[in-house]
């Protein structure tokens, strides 16, 4: 069976190529792709040296939102939008575009025509055999599915029956057995003007691109429950979910390939959960390829006034590392390490499990004694030890101008 972790938390599916396990792929060349607005730049990955080498850039129809590779590693599907994030200004240009991945260099070449989407896509994935593209939309919350044509271009939409897509979908994943789809709907925190919108995991049966038999996982009716991202253990029936608005990491057992409603273990993501200085938001979650460790990102970026400027208020911007008990699935925190920049929205682990890269959206001014300095957007690179712990290697500052870094991921060639 092909490894379920072709993109770590980005699994994919379908060309009749020889099987490739993550252990085997450790010596393979790896390409990293990271966006700034509509530009998607390719980097060579030097895993041994924990370094990135910038190569060419391709330009998409609008700002990159998410991407996912075909299981063959020969195609990359990229979702784009001209809308602002969250509930920001709506745009009019929303697409999925396919690119060929050069198997030797990792360079991207546009493959066929883009397909239009109805609104801003916030996340996308492929099913396990790479026969369909599943796209999550946050406003309004929705899930649409598109066929992949025989020539690997994105194709027509697969019509679905009525569904409840919750509030503020943030991620869609297909279970490793390809029999279920999970739509992660975050909801919204309460404000002085508006009550809380509940969050939930929407679980569907899935077959040939069609969803059915929707069930809901929503502890406490979805109140004070804001799930953002999930990932699956590579060999055990365990699922881990980052709870953005409560800064928790949940573990669910799976049965028959489907997650059970009970939260078996709930752990803090923050190093100092009783010392929250500004809004904290748990982000991406990835299980290590060897299944022994779990990683999550903590983000903060609120500002205060200082001598006429908006400066960072303080908080946690770090990666939390958990050790996973191989008998029970319990995840125990063993490290928090700063990412050396502000707001690590996403991160990724190379296929061999020896290097982690975290991406930071925007530059932020910070107070440095009586002066103010700017912490740039960029990519922070970490080495990963055999004990699962991270050590900082280097940061690549990136000038984003008026754009934003929104997505980054690695693909073995």
Features:
413 residues, mainly beta, Methylamine Dehydrogenase, Chain H, five-stranded antiparallel β-sheet, 1 helix, 51% strand
Question: How many extended strands?
Answer: 34
Secondary-structure content class: mainly beta
Q: What is the domain total for the residues?
A: 1
Percent of residues in helices comes to under 10%
Question: Quick one: overall form?
Answer: globular
Mean pLDDT reading: 93
How many helix segments?
Answer: 1
CATH arch. level architecture = 7 Propeller
Radius of gyration: 20 Å
Report the major sheet. Answer: 5 strands, antiparallel
How big a fraction of the residues is strand? over 45%
Query: Would you tell me which CATH topology applies?
Result: Methylamine Dehydrogenase, Chain H
Low-confidence stretches: 1-26
- N→C terminal distance: 18 Å
| CATH classification, class level | Mainly Beta
What is the H level of CATH, i.e. the homologous superfamily? YVTN repeat-like/Quinoprotein amine dehydrogenase
Describe what you observe in this structure.
Mean pLDDT is 93; it is low at 1-26. 49% of the residues are buried. The longest helix is centred in the first third of the chain and has 4 residues, at 22-25. This protein has 413 residues and is mainly β. The chain contains 1 helix and 34 strands. The protein has one domain (22-412): YVTN repeat-like/Quinoprotein amine dehydrogenase (Methylamine Dehydrogenase, Chain H), CATH 2.130.10. The strands form 9 sheets. Strands 4, 5, 6, 7 and 8 form a 5-stranded antiparallel β-sheet that branches. Strands 17, 18, 19, 20 and 21 form a 5-stranded antiparallel β-sheet that branches. It has a 4-stranded antiparallel β-sheet with strand order 3-2-1-34, with no helix packed on it. It is globular. The chain has one helix at residues 22-25, and strands spanning 30-36, 39-46, 51-59, 63-69, 75-81, 94-101, 108-110, 115-116, 121-126, 132-138, 141-148, 154-158, 169-174, 180-185, 200-207, 210-217, 227-232, 238-243, 248-255, 258-259, 265-268, 281-287, 293-299, 303-306, 309-312, 318-324, 331-338, 344-349, 355-360, 364-368, 371-375, 377-384, 390-398, 408-412. A hairpin with a 6-residue loop joins strand 6 and strand 7.
């Amino acid at each position: 069976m092909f490894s379920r972790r072709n993109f770590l938390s980005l699994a994919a599916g379908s060309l009749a190529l020889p099987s490739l396990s993550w252990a085997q792929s450790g010596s393979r060349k790896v390409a990293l792709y990271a966006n700034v607005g509509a530009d998607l730049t390719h980097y060579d990955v030097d895993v041994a040296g924990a370094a990135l080498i910038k190569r060419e850039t391709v330009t998409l129809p609008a700002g990159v939102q998410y991407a996912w590779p075909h299981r063959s590693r020969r195609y990359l599907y990229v979702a784009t939008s001209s809308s602002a994030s969250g509930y920001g200004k709506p745009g009019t240009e929303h697409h999925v575009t396919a690119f060929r991945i050069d198997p030797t260099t990792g360079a991207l070449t546009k493959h066929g025509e883009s397909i239009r989407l109805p609104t801003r896509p916030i996340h996308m994935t492929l099913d396990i055999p790479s026969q369909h593209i599943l796209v999550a939309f946050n406003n309004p919350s929705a899930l649409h599915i598109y066929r992949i044509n025989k020539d690997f271009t994105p194709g027509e939409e697969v019509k679905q029956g009525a569904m409840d897509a919750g509030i503020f979908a943030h991620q869609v994943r297909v279970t490793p057995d390809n029999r279920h789809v999970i739509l992660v709907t975050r909801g919204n925190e309460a404000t002085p003007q508006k009550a809380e919108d509940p969050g939930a995991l929407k679980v569907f049966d899935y077959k040939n691109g069609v969803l059915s038999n929707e069930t809901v996982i929503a502890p406490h009716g979805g109140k004070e429950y804001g799930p953002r991202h999930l990932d699956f253990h590579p060999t055990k029936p365990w699922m881990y979910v980052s709870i953005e608005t409560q800064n928790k990491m949940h573990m669910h057992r799976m049965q028959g390939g489907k997650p059970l409603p009970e939260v078996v273990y709930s752990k803090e993501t923050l190093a100092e959960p009783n010392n929250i200085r500004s809004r904290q938001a748990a982000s991406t979650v990835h299980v290590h390829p060897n299944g022994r460790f779990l990683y999550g990102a903590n983000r903060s970026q609120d500002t205060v006034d200082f001598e006429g400027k908006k400066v960072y208020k303080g908080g946690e911007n770090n990666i939390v590392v958990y050790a996973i008990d191989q008998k029970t699935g319990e995840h125990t925190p063993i490290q928090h390490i700063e990412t050396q920049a502000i707001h690590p929205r996403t991160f990724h682990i190379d296929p061999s499990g020896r290097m982690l890269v975290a991406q930071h959206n925007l530059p932020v001014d910070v107070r440095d004694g009586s002066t103010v300095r700017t912490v740039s957007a960029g990519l922070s690179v970490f080495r990963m030890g055999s004990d699962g712990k991270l050590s900082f290697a280097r940061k690549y500052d990136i000038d984003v101008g008026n754009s934003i870094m929104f997505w980054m991921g690695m693909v073995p060639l």
